[in-house]
Design a protein that fits this description.
Chain A: It holds the Pfam family DUF3325. The structure holds two protein chains of two kinds. By secondary structure, chain A is mainly alpha-helical. Chain A is elongated and about 40 Å long. Chain A is built from five helices and no strands. The model of chain A has no long low-confidence stretch (mean pLDDT 92). Chain A has one domain. Chain B is α+β, with helices and mostly antiparallel strands. In chain B, a hairpin with a 5-residue loop joins β6 and β7. In chain B, α7 crosses α12, α14 runs parallel beside α16 and α17 packs across α18. The two termini of chain B are 27 Å apart. In chain B, 37% of the residues are buried. The C terminus of chain B is likely disordered. Classes of the chains: A mainly alpha, B alpha+beta. At the A-B interface, α1 and α4 of A face α6 and α13 of B.
């Protein structure tokens, strides 16, 4: 469930950054169209990819339930962090992405 | 035309949400607590000690007890303990009257020593579970009312999605410290982000009661005899009748192991033994609901009690049953381990928060218009009082329920009923308090009282039992320790909310000065 959580969270952060307003708040600049597209595609890919570890660990029925739970909670976490600890929100995504190969080796 | 449609949906969302919001808040909060039904029961019966779970030992202990105390009973039931609720329950019935629910005698046993436990009489977590769909009303009415509320909830969800203009653009938006704006942001954020849960929980609640709500197809196909439908759906296990010759019942533990082998190592929930002292004894082993997401209505393995011969393994359920079972399973979350159970709990709280913020927004929007005069029309005052009682009042009532559990003596007559009474008395008193005090003061006082009561729960537990946090944490009894810690956390949260209210009312005058200008702008 940890790997799915890391991927979901990073995916949501990427999608969040692909929106002009949040990009401005977090990185103080407007994203270029290419960057916006890249973030959007990357975000959706990460979200889609996160299904795999969840299903791999717990089978289809339980894995999908786990995935849905993780998906909702990572979104909720990000939205709560954004106004109060915006830097932490970004750092967590970076650390999460860096840690995900380790988590993959440890669990899969 | 499009805007007209959206406005109509917004109107529906506003009013459906208001009228049923108070009830839905209570249903959601008590339903959320029901995810920890076992743990709550464990906390409310501290006499039942927690042990490492060992099915074989528990079954042997239960069998020994029943053979001593109910050798001639017609039926035995054994409910096995699990990590969430450590009680071993044995139940027996002396005589079976066909077509009537017989008298059961139930005892709680210590699963290690086999001693009968003198646990205090309480409904425990079962109270919240029952309340969230029966609403403490006589039989069909509570279920009907809660199902109607669920339908309204479903309507409110769909209309809410339609009304929300910028779901994707505002997906990550939450702007705190901006008054009404923040409440609306919060309402949208928990609504949209946890939407899969909201839709699942609301729709599945309708599926669970579908035979009650929409019986037309059953009545048409079975000529109005709904009982025939249920008999066909859940066939009674036709166990062999007693022959009247004494027999010797085999040890049950090996049968449990055999049953588990049939389920690829699945877990056993309970056992039923028919005619235990007879040659024709039969043993039905039922699978625990915690094994799979898709709830199986009656997955059992039957044995002959004297020879150990495998009699029957229940068939795989049909596809429609599996679909119904999957909604049932998802709603109940029996399968969830500790982590997923917490996520369920958080989702439930998010749903409760969505309803609560919606109620606050309804009132806040309309109150603005009367801020200058300071006189509220009757209907707004009514909504305010109901908001107070249904939200902070309910929280106080829940805390009082826990306090009553510790303060009422164990020997008190009908103490279980009195726990429930104290819940409703406390709730009624909060309604009275809300009527007597002005809005903001009432919020601060009720939230403050709730905070004190919840933070006091671990302390009260330490004073009245030997299961305080130091002991439960050291023993690794996470159900007990988790309950205390969660109460402490809830208390801190309520204290923060009360402080926030107090703080904001202090800044109020400055905001008041700014407001008339904007109001004038609206009028002209």
């Amino acid at each position: 469930m940890l790997l799915a959580l890391l991927l979901c969270y990073a995916g949501f952060v990427a999608l969040c950054l692909s929106l002009d307003r949040h990009h401005g708040e977090l990185l103080h600049s407007k994203p270029s169209p290419r960057r916006r597209l890249g973030l959007r595609v990357g975000g959706w890919l990460l979200l889609a990819l996160s299904i795999w570890p969840a299903v791999h660990m717990a089978g289809w029925s339980r894995g999908l339930v786990d995935w849905c739970a993780v998906l909702m909670l990572s979104g909720l976490l990000l939205v709560l962090l954004l106004p109060y600890r915006p830097r932490l929100a970004l750092i967590l995504a970076g650390v999460g992405l860096l840690a995900s190969p380790v988590a993959a080796f440890a669990t899969l | 035309m499009k805007e007209g449609f959206r406005q109509a949906m917004a109107w529906l969302h506003t009013w459906a949400g208001l009228i049923f919001g108070w009830l839905l808040f209570a249903i959601f909060l008590t339903g959320t607590l029901s995810y920890f039904k076992g743990e709550i029961t464990h906390w409310m019966q501290p006499e039942v000690p927690a042990h490492a779970v060992d099915d074989a030992r528990s079954v042997a202990v239960a069998q020994r007890y029943l053979e001593q105390h109910a050798p001639t009973a017609a039926r035995w039931f054994i409910g096995l303990p699990d990590s969430r609720d450590p009680g071993l329950s044995v139940m027996w019935q002396d005589k079976i009257d066909p077509g009537r629910r017989g008298n059961f005698i139930e005892k709680m046993l210590d699963p290690v020593s086999g001693e009968q436990l003198q646990a205090r009489e309480t409904m425990g977590g079962e109270f919240f579970y029952r309340f969230h769909f029966q609403l403490q009303m006589p039989h069909p009415w509570g279920r009907w009312l809660s199902t109607i509320a669920a339908m309204v909830m479903f309507v409110a969800l769909i209309t809410g999605i339609i009304t929300h203009k910028k779901i994707f653009k505002d997906f990550f938006t939450f702007r705190p410290r901006k008054g009404q704006r923040s409440w609306l942001d919060g309402h949208n954020a928990v609504g949209v982000l946890v939407l899969p849960f909201h839709l699942m929980i609301t729709y599945s609640s309708l599926v669970i009661f579908m035979t009650m709500v929409m019986p037309a197809s059953i009545i048409a196909s079975y000529d109005g005899d709904t009982r025939a439908f249920f008999n066909e759906l859940f066939p009674a296990t036709d166990n062999a009748p007693a022959l009247g010759q004494p027999g010797k019942l085999l040890p049950l533990a090996p049968l449990v192991e055999q049953a588990r082998a049939q389920w690829d190592g699945g877990h056993v929930g309970r056992l039923a033994v028919n005619n235990p002292g007879d040659v024709n004894a039969s043993v039905n082993v039922s699978r625990a609901g915690s094994d799979r997401v898709v709830h199986d209505f009656g997955s059992t393995v039957s044995f002959n009690g004297n020879t150990g011969e495998l009699l029957r393994v229940s068939a795989e359920q049909s596809l429609p049953m599996a679909i119904g079972g999957s909604f049932y399973g998802l709603h109940m979350g029996h399968f969830a381990g500790p982590l997923l159970r917490w996520l369920y709990f958080i989702c439930g709280l998010a749903g409760t928060a969505m309803i609560g913020t919606g109620l606050v927004i309804w009132l806040g929007k309309r109150q603005l218009k009367h801020a200058k005069t300071g006189v509220m029309p009757f209907e707004l005052r009514l909504v305010e009082v109901l908001n107070l009682a249904s939200m902070s009042g309910l929280l106080i009532a829940i805390a009082v329920f826990f306090w009553a559990n510790r303060l009422l003596p164990a020997t008190f007559a009908e103490r279980s009923d009195w726990e429930v009474q104290s819940f409703f008395i406390a709730w009624g008193l909060t309604l009275l308090h809300a009527m007597l005090r002005r809005g903001r003061r009432a919020w601060i006082e009720q939230l403050g009282l709730g905070a004190v009561l919840f933070m006091g729960v671990p302390l009260l537990n330490a004073l009245t039992t030997s299961e305080h946090l130091g002991v439960s944490l050291a023993k690794g009894d996470w159900a007990m320790a988790g309950f205390d810690l969660t109460c402490l956390g809830s208390g801190l949260f309520l204290a923060w909310a009360a402080w926030k209210m107090q703080h904001r009312s202090a800044v109020q005058p400055r905001a008041e000065r700014a407001r008339p200008l904007t109001l004038k702008g609206e009028v002209h």
